[in-house]
Design a protein that fits this description.
alpha+beta; Pnp Oxidase, Chain A; 8-stranded antiparallel β-sheet; 29% helix; globular; Pyridox_Oxase_N; Flavin-nucleotide-binding protein; Split_barrel_FMN-bd
Length: 178
């Protein structure tokens, strides 16, 4: 098996792809993100890998995930680079919708102003949360790259698979709609 050849498929294809205007693509990406609320979060390091279905909130170009714990934190301890996937049910090639988001995760300390802001956004009572037997952890994921597959974009004349790259200096560009 030529793994390098297989791995380079999309990289080579992207070089010739008809890409959508960045701002228009960003709008479509965010629309897709906002019409969903669950992702598969992959974490890992060394020979440990974990993929967890989990609810997210999207705010200010960042994904916010509340969790009671679990093995995903073993992966986060060893490697802050993560991947999350959001997708529609597959019903055929003319109805594709999904994205792979690579990003960097950080844990937000419980009860800080950032933590409390997310609770308020989600209408979660801090008093009720403090009564739970465990503290909920808050994972903040800042995207570095998004690969978006959308048949609707193809109908407009663009390649079905589009991508956005973000550096630390333009990660804030991800949020267009507040």
């Amino acid at each position: 098996m030529d793994y390098n050849k297989a791995a380079s498929y999309w990289t080579e294809k992207e070089e010739k792809a008809f890409q959508m205007n960045r701002d228009e693509l960003l709008t479509r990406v965010e629309e897709f993100i906002m019409t969903h609320n669950t992702c598969a979060l992959a974490t890992g390091f060394s020979d440990f890998v974990r993929c967890t279905p989990i609810e997210y909130t999207y705010k200010d170009g960042t994904f916010w995930l509340l969790s009671e714990g679990g093995l995903k934190f073993r992966g986060l301890e060893g490697n802050k680079n993560v991947c999350l996937v959001i997708y529609d049910e597959y019903t055929g090639l003319d109805h594709l919708g999904g994205m792979q988001v690579n990003g960097v995760a950080e844990l937000v300390e419980p009860w800080t102003s950032e933590y409390m802001e997310l609770l308020a956004l989600k209408n979660i009572s801090a008093q009720k949360l403090k009564k739970l037997p465990t503290t909920l952890y808050l994972i903040k994921i800042t995207p570095t790259r998004i690969d978006f597959v959308c048949s609707e974009i193809h109908k407009l004349g663009f390649d079905t698979r589009q991508h956005l790259c973000f550096s630390d200096s333009n990660a804030d560009d991800l949020d267009l709609h507040g």
